[in-house]
């Protein structure tokens, strides 16, 4: 069959029903192939290639399948790269397909900058932020290239793969079956490290679990929940994992620089910390790594050996293993049946002492909003203050998922990711964003209007780039350069703009009226919530301090008393 048609049929054989992209000259054969009556895959046209890449990320996060995005050569391909980076840092399985100029037009070994119109060496650009990136030079190479791309994207620690396919290769001929790619699980078992981990865990009197997105990537979310229920031990998460066990009684929120104070105190007081699929990056453990749980034994389980090459403690036990396989190994079952009643009592006392201590108006708005969202909806967040407020104060129900751009921290993520999440689930989505983030990919409102999909866009409009405005207040004597209205920044009337696209919209300038709002489960809707006061994200950690000593600083006597419990 025609190579472009083979690509589409191969994608369909992986169980993927929806892909995202933007038209261009070097992908016209691929676009045409998607529109065949026999195609099992629908191609959705976004309004920007970055939006397409983020939508593919959201689709993958919500479905567990590979996300797929396509773009033409040159600027189309480079516009995809922000989404490719996002998939790389957040371990999202993703295949990016870029068109390229005909092989006969490629610059090859010539010293020219480009020979073909819109020719760009996207493979070289993408290699540092992909698991693999390569060009398909001949149509007969295509079956093997696609099999490799989808396998590599999903095996081990998931991530993106980029395939660059010249136009003449797309119109070539392929004679091969389209089969589902089988991803083999990790086979090697680190027996010595498992034995050391068991020895540490058996001694635990105040154990605590820290879990991250590696648990979800391994398909072990339910296994983690079962483990926690059987042991009853305290647990905290990374920020993007707040949706994994929200109804577990021993869950105490997310840790780190902007994390819940109770989570940071509890981890600091543990004698053994078991880290499952969390990277232990600066935002999680602080700028001075030795300040993180200095008096606890640390056991880290991660499938990515590269992450373990950056230790927190010199004597930590590192288990280079899939988290699901670790939980299935029985090594940690030595914690089952232990008496942790006193330890859990300490954790509850810390929780009660610190409950609501950092809540402000935006936290209340997010908390009230969460009561309106049904339990089977997905929630997408943007980057900035709105993201942290969502992680802190959105009261998640079991079954709800909250999607983040975490490692890359890409503003503009929430809206296109919501589009991808909708097509993965065919259920309504709440898109929680800020005035700054929404304007990054605001053109995707046209997608909502065109397709009529039930994505509810809620804009927390503080008329500022709030996170940076806060930095300027702290470190630059309140010189709000380019971050507030009237000083190089502005936000529009979002409701009027949504109406211009043909989307139902409402503005709320009195947050007390939020309870009277209704979300839509059948059509797009935009709700703009005006926040007139300066906004802050608290608690907030000053660089170099231990995680539990966040700002605004607590009374020293209170800290001392909590640490002595």
Secondary-structure topology with pairs:
Blueprint: H1 3-13, E1 18-21, H2 28-34, E2 42-45, H3 49-63, E3 67-71, H4 75-89, E4 94-100, H5 122-126, E5 132-135, H6 142-154, E6 160-166, H7 167-170, H8 191-202, E7 207-211, H9 213-217, H10 221-231, E8 235-237, E9 251-254, H11 261-269, E10 272-276, H12 282-285, E11 297-302, H13 305-308, E12 317-320, H14 323-329, H15 341-354, H16 361-370, E13 378-381, H17 385-393, E14 401-403, H18 414-425, E15 429-434, H19 435-440, H20 445-451, E16 455-461, H21 466-475, H22 494-501, E17 504-508, E18 525-530, H23 556-564
Q: Please, could you describe this protein's structure?
A:
The chain is of the alpha/beta class and 565 residues long. It is built from 23 helices and 18 strands. The chain has a 6-stranded parallel β-sheet with strand order 2-1-3-4-6-5, with helices on both faces. The longest helix is centred in the N-terminal third of the chain and has 15 residues, at 49-63. The model has no long low-confidence stretch (mean pLDDT 96).
């Amino acid at each position: 069959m025609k190579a472009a048609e083979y690509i589409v049929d191969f994608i369909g054989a992986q169980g993927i029903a929806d892909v995202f992209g933007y038209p261009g000259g070097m992908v016209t054969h691929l676009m045409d192939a998607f529109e065949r009556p026999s195609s099992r895959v629908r191609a959705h046209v976004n309004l920007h290639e970055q939006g397409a890449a983020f939508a593919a990320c959201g689709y993958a996060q919500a479905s567990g399948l590979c996300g797929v995005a396509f773009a033409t050569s040159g600027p189309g391909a480079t516009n995809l790269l922000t989404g490719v980076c996002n998939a790389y840092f957040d371990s999202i399985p993703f295949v990016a397909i870029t068109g390229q100029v005909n092989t006969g037009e490629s610059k090859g070994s010539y010293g020219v900058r480009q020979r073909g119109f819109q020719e760009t060496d996207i493979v070289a650009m993408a290699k540092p932020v992909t698991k693999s990136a390569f060009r398909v030079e001949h149509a007969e190479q295509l079956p093997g290239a696609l099999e490799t791309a989808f396998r590599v994207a999903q095996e081990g620690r998931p991530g993106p793969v980029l395939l660059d396919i010249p136009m003449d290769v797309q119109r070539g001929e392929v004679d091969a079956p389209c089969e589902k790619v089988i991803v083999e699980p990790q086979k090697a078992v680190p027996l010595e490290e498992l034995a050391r981990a068991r020895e540490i865990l058996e001694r635990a009197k105040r154990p605590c679990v820290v879990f991250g997105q590696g648990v979800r990537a391994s398909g072990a979310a339910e296994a983690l929940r079962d483990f926690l229920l059987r042991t009853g031990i305290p647990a905290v998460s990374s920020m993007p994992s707040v949706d994994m066990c929200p109804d577990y009684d021993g869950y105490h929120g997310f840790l780190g620089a902007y994390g819940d104070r109770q989570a940071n105190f509890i981890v600091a007081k543990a004698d053994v910390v078991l880290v499952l699929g969390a990277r232990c990056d600066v935002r999680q453990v602080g700028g001075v790594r030795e300040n993180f749980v200095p008096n606890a034994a640390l056991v880290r389980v991660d499938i990515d050996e590269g992450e373990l090459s950056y230790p927190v403690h010199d004597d930590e036990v590192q288990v280079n293993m899939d988290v699901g396989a670790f939980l299935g190994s029985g090594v940690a079952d030595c914690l089952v049946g232990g008496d942790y009643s006193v330890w859990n009592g300490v954790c509850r006392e810390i929780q009660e002492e610190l409950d609501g201590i950092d809540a402000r108006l935006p936290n209340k708005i997010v908390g009230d909003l969460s009561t309106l969202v049904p339990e089977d909806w997905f929630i997408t967040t943007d980057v900035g203050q709105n993201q942290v407020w969502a992680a802190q104060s959105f009261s998640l129900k079991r079954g709800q998922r909250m999607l983040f751009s975490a490692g890359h921290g890409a503003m503009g993520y929430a809206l296109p990711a919501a589009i991808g999440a909708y097509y993965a689930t065919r259920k309504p989505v709440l898109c929680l964003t800020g005035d700054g983030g929404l304007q990054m990919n605001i053109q995707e409102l046209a997608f909502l209007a065109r397709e009529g999909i039930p994505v509810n866009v809620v804009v927390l409009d503080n008329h500022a780039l709030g996170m940076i405005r806060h930095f300027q207040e702290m470190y630059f004597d309140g010189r709000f350069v380019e971050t507030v209205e009237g000083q190089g920044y502005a936000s529009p009337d979002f409701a009027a703009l949504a109406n211009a696209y043909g989307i139902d919209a409402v503005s709320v300038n009195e947050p007390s009226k939020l309870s009277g709002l209704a979300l839509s489960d059948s059509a797009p809707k935009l709700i703009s919530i005006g926040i007139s006061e300066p906004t802050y994200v608290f608690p907030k950690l000053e660089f170099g301090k231990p995680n539990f000593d966040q700002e605004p600083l607590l009374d020293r006597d209170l800290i001392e008393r909590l640490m002595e419990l």
